[in-house]
Amino acid sequence: MPRRLAVVITTLVVCLAGQQWSPVVAGEPGPRKDPQWSTGGDARACSGPIWPDALNTTPGPGQGRRVLVIGDSLTRNGRKPLKRALREDGWTPTVRCFGGKRLDWAIAQATRAKELDQLPATVVVAIGTNDMRWIDRGTTASRMKELMRVLGPRRTVMWVDTYASGGDRFTREKERWFNRQVKQLAADSNNLHHIRWGSWARDQKVPFADALHYTTRGTKTWASRVADEVSRIAG
Question: Is residue 7, in this structure, part of any structural domain at all?
Fold first, then answer.
């Protein structure tokens, strides 16, 4: 075979091979992003939620199972240690988070996940701080029930309650009211479980970095507490 022809054929084979196999390693499907996810240039946003094609096979309570976490800036700040802790217990986590968001946004995220067939059997809700800062209680209570309706009765849902410093429109009294709603919803629902964070964090003296957010140590404590409770409840 002429040398020039051999070079052309070799180059063509390499190009075709690169097109066919370089995007995905066999047996390790690439992650999928929600094509409609947008940060809108908002620095408070998380990066787009990733729905891995391959399930985590690490031995543990969540081995081979998915969990979706829907949260605000507290989840955004803690998502890396949270996902790491969940993976260590075998879970395959997907996180939808955006700083400053409230229950209406959480409802939209649950609806969107359902449209994508990405609403798994285990869901964690970590929303409420911004509702108590800005939204009236009647609307908040109604939205909490609507979120549970969207999630449905067959999923295991865990709701992380709130922890207030008393600053920036989020008083201790508002914390207590919201946490009572979570407790009552859990009592009324066979599939909702209340993750006690506020009272537990206060007992542990989890420190705040500002009026709403925790220090790095506090954020890691939040992530560890949530992951431990997910595995305890749903594992």
Answer: no
Residue 6 in this model has a pLDDT that exceeds 70: no
18 in a structural domain: no
Q: What range defines the domain where residue 228 resides?
A: 27-234
The secondary structure of 77-124, three-state, reads: HHHHHHHHHHHHCCEEEEEEEECCCCHHHHHHHHHHHHHCCCCCCEEE
Question: What DSSP assignment string belongs to 113-181?
Answer: HHHTT---SEEEEE--HHHHHHS-HHHHHHHHHHHHHHH-TTSEEEEE-----S-TT--HHHHHHHHHH
Mention every residue, 6+ apart, whose C-beta is less than 8 A from residue 178: 128, 131, 132, 140, 161, 162
**Structurally, how many domains does the chain consist of?**
1
- In angstroms, the CA 157 to CA 221 distance is 21
* Residue 99 belongs to domain with CATH number: 3.40.50.1110
- Write the pLDDT tens digit of every residue in 116-167: 999 999 999 999 999 999 999 999 999 999 999 999 999 999 999 999 999 9
Is the predicted pLDDT of residue 24 greater than 50, yes or no?
A: no
Asked, for residue 32, whether it belongs to a domain, the answer is yes
